[in-house]
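Much of what follows relies on a compact textual record of a protein's fold. Think of the row as the fold of the chain written in a discrete alphabet. An example makes this concrete, so a full record is given next.


***
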Amino acid sequence: MIKNIFLALIPVFVAVDAVGVLPIFMSLTKSMKEKERRQAIIQSFFTAVSVALIFILVGKWLFSLLGITVGDFMIAGGSILFCIAIMDLLLPGKQRHVDPREVGAVPLGMPLIVGPAVLTTCLIIVDQYGVVPTIISVIANVFFAALMFSFSGSIIRVIGKSGANALSRIMALLLGAIAVMMIRKGIITIIHM
């Protein structure tokens, strides 16, 4: 069980990309007071965890209803992840305009913390490591993102904006590699059906 939790933590950590979201969080909340920023962090945590849990619990049922196989989803999800990775590499730190009262839910909680990358990754690792390790890995990684947001000022001072951008690009590259792996596994799954 502990091994499965650890193995599930890694792909979700890469998919969440808390370091990559950090500069966007900073830009979205720079005009907020400390209390508003804390509320946005709490709102983003609960939104992200809720969306991920619902998807983990009903995603398979929905696929069965629509006649989608895991192989189909792996290829589609991998393709989307690859596009996201390319966009993150070529267009880092895209500016977003949002309502300050809703910034925690949208876009921070969904789709920045838990978006297509995390949902696709969760659906795949549920089969590999189980529901409980997947849920634990999602909660732990979303909590880590919230923790990073809480200490965002200190973190950016230590690693600098260029350091955060460099780490974000490394995460995007890893996300691209995970996407290619998912497409490959999806094709193999379909061939062996």
Notes: The radius of gyration is 17 Å.
